[in-house]
Amino acid sequence: MNLYHMTQNRPTRRTPHRKIAIVATMTLAFAAPYACLREAYAANEVAAEPILLNDNGAWSWFEDERAIVDVASGKLLVSSVADASGSGGVNRDGDIDIVSLDINTGHVDSFVLHAGLEDDDHNSASLYVRPDGRYVAMYAKHGSDPFSRYRISKNPHDATAWEDEETFPNGAGATYSNLHFLPADDGGAGRLYNFTRTENYDPNILTSADQGATWSYGGKLLSEGGGGDRPYVRYFSDGDKIHFIATERHPRNYDNSIYHGYVQDGQLFGSAGNVLDSNLFNSTAVAPSQLTPVLPTGAVFDDDTMRRGWTLDVAIDGGGNPVAIHQARANNDTSDHRFFYSRWDGSQWNTNQLGFAGSYLYGAESDYTGLVAIDPDDVNTVYLSSEVHPATKAQLIGADGERHYELFRGNTQDSGQTWQWTPLTFNSEVDNLRPVVPKWDAENSAILWMRGTYSTYVDYDLDVVAMVNPNVAAPTPALSIDFGATGQSVQPGFEAFSRAGSGVSGDQTESYPSAFAAGSAGIVVTLAGDPQFRNRGSDVDSPVGDVVNDFVFANNDLSVTFSDLQAGDYQIVLYAHDRDFAQSEYSVSQSGKQLGVLAPTDGSAPSIGVASARYWFHADGQSDVVLNLESLVGSSVPLNGLELYAASAPFIGPPIDFNSDGLFDVADYFILSANLHSSFAGLTSQEAYSRGDINGDLKADFADFTVFRRMYDEWNGAGAFAALTIPEPSGLLVASGLLIGRLMTYRAGPGDSVTPVGETRHGNTRNAVHQ
């Protein structure tokens, strides 16, 4: 059979936040609630429990709804496309998957809609729940044949069994599927729309009068230029209208503006309700430029001119007005994209810059960013992926010293004029990309994203992960310090730590008032390592320019000690930049725990942004907290400034979890025991791990057992392994005389992806081009 069917049973574990509770099914970081495990390494922090939905999958952002919540059955469904570079390798290459999560039990089902269709993330299915509870999934190749493919589930609220695949032949190569139902259309009979790119590369319309059982060609939504001049359209429906935003063409080929319109009962309207096309079901169509402008190209924000826009997401507020997310290049610079948030107030569009978006995922697609999703049940909340901080434009350097895309939640209380940002992932060694938020209700929300390595749209190693009702509070500022020589310009909101530019010797100490100080003297900060202070002027082009113009440095190593800090969990952001000289990377550790590697940037106009890193640590309220910054090559260690936040501890999952059930228990022991003395040559690293390979040598042996036994006691308590009262695997006593070295590096678990050594995301030579 050309079907892949996988069922995973997971235990129920309820948590108190919001309406729906969810079980944990995935471990993303080497972490445990015991200091002995956290001391070794800290990376891939996630703010709340993540759920692994699919260990090999990706999507583009022009097919919707990719993820839906079936409220009647309490299920979350998502479609994605597998790739040969991911788990399962070539055997899953091009599979069109659909995954169903039972939100109350945590049970996950996965079904392959079409095995080996095409390894291209553009091909994920659009999903729709019919009134009878059965699901419709519609998908197409990336223009390489004319078929829109579709399947209907056999039973209501069940994604594990589907009717045979049917096809609709379009008049040209088909790309993308977008299913939206308007019940009042066609005299109240209702009409199911599928918007797909076919003839002339324009958005064309298919319609169904029988809830997706059969389809007919309707007409064109828009028409632009000649063959290959393709508008890019994003859709959203509230059941009354289908709102959409569009460009003229691909930003690679055209200096796009952003436009809006909506569909209702077979007609096309502008934002104000003016009719633009009274009959969508014919061969004529208007150009995108005849729609209502949202953001014209050439608009200026903060003295920067925006060019070559692209559409990202659209939703509808409580008053029925559309809200849109889109992006543009600042000054036509592909290393400086910006995200924008636009709202229609009933008479006009109001647009604000949402945040900085960074550069691009790979060179052949220089407008591929991390993307943004609106929460359709709360349009004042967005989820944003970027390789730079959305407010400060500082590069987000992960634990491996490389820049990575991280996930943020943004909240606005003034229609998008200002935003509060909460990091949901940080200090990562992989990328967190393309968030999706399906419509649910005012009490519940789910955020899905792709996590791993994205090389091109036909080459990726990504997990599909989710958080359901993440109870994550925004970090609270505790202290911000700007280091530099006397006379430095201090960044607004920061406290100065200044000394003379020469003649300084010995440790240097300052105290600062803070609500998080343990005593009345404030938080005491001490710099050690013979720190020296410098002022490089005032011309670094950055939102945190006053911070990074100046710095403190030491030769080889610099330590920062916090005394009199209240007990609790904290996040700290470090900035590292030297305007005049290139500086070498350095490691950052805390009390013996390796936090990461920070590579300073340089220059007055740093490409993409200045370097920053975010780490988590715990203070016990009594001991000093000491950060050690040590050069990896014996050179200078610069530190421009820091921001300290009181924040909840990140999610901490079991260090070993072969079966991905969120537990480190006897079931994992039996997996290791059953596979002991086995070679996993030819398997992927994730497949080997799921069979008991902890140290990454593609076999299960006494070395893995030794680590398992030690960590089992550390996680479950001293003597826990012995209390299992099960015999050790045969043959282990023979090997007990072997000297087993200390496990020095974390072996990625089944939910983790690791960037291959030597791979460069932005400089790779792959040439997959978005069509």
Overview of the molecule:
- The protein is mainly beta.
- It is 5% helix and 39% strand.
- The strands form 12 sheets. Strands 29, 36, 37, 43, 46, 47 and 50 form a 7-stranded mixed β-sheet that branches. Strands 16, 17, 18, 19, 20 and 21 form a 6-stranded antiparallel β-sheet that branches.
- The longest helix has 15 residues.
- The two termini are 32 Å apart.
- The N terminus is likely disordered.
**What structural class do you assign from the helix and strand content?**
mainly beta
Count of DSSP helices?
A: 5
Low-confidence stretches: 1-41, 730-767
Helix content: under 10%
Number of strands: 52
Average of per-residue pLDDT values? 88
- Beta content comes to 35-45%
What radius of gyration results from the CA coordinates? 27 Å
Q: What is the overall shape?
A: globular
Q: Measure the end-to-end span.
A: 32 Å
* Largest sheet descriptor: 7 strands, mixed
In short:
5% of the residues lie in helices and 39% in strands.
Secondary structure: elements and pairs:
Blueprint: E1 5-8, H1 35-38, E2 45-46, E3 51-54, E4 67-70, E5 75-81, E6 96-102, E7 108-114, E8 126-129, E9 135-140, E10 147-152, E11 166-169, E12 179-182, E13 191-197, E14 203-208, E15 216-220, E16 233-237, E17 242-246, E18 258-264, E19 267-269, E20 275-277, E21 292-295, E22 300-301, E23 304-316, E24 322-330, E25 333-344, E26 349-358, E27 372-375, E28 378-386, E29 395-396, E30 406-411, E31 420-423, E32 425-426, E33 431-436, E34 446-456, E35 459-468, E36 476-485, E37 495-499, E38 508-512, E39 523-528, E40 532-535, H2 545-548, E41 550-555, E42 557-563, E43 568-578, E44 586-590, E45 593-598, E46 601-602, E47 611-619, E48 625-631, E49 636-639, E50 641-646, H3 666-675, E51 678-679, H4 685-690, E52 699-700, H5 702-716
Parallel strand pairs: 29-47, 36-37, 43-46
Antiparallel strand pairs: 1-7, 2-32, 3-35, 4-5, 5-6, 6-7, 8-9, 9-10, 10-11, 12-13, 13-14, 14-15, 16-17, 17-18, 18-19, 18-21, 19-20, 22-23, 23-24, 24-25, 25-26, 27-28, 28-30, 30-31, 33-34, 34-35, 36-50, 38-39, 39-42, 40-41, 41-49, 42-48, 43-47, 43-50, 44-45, 44-48, 51-52
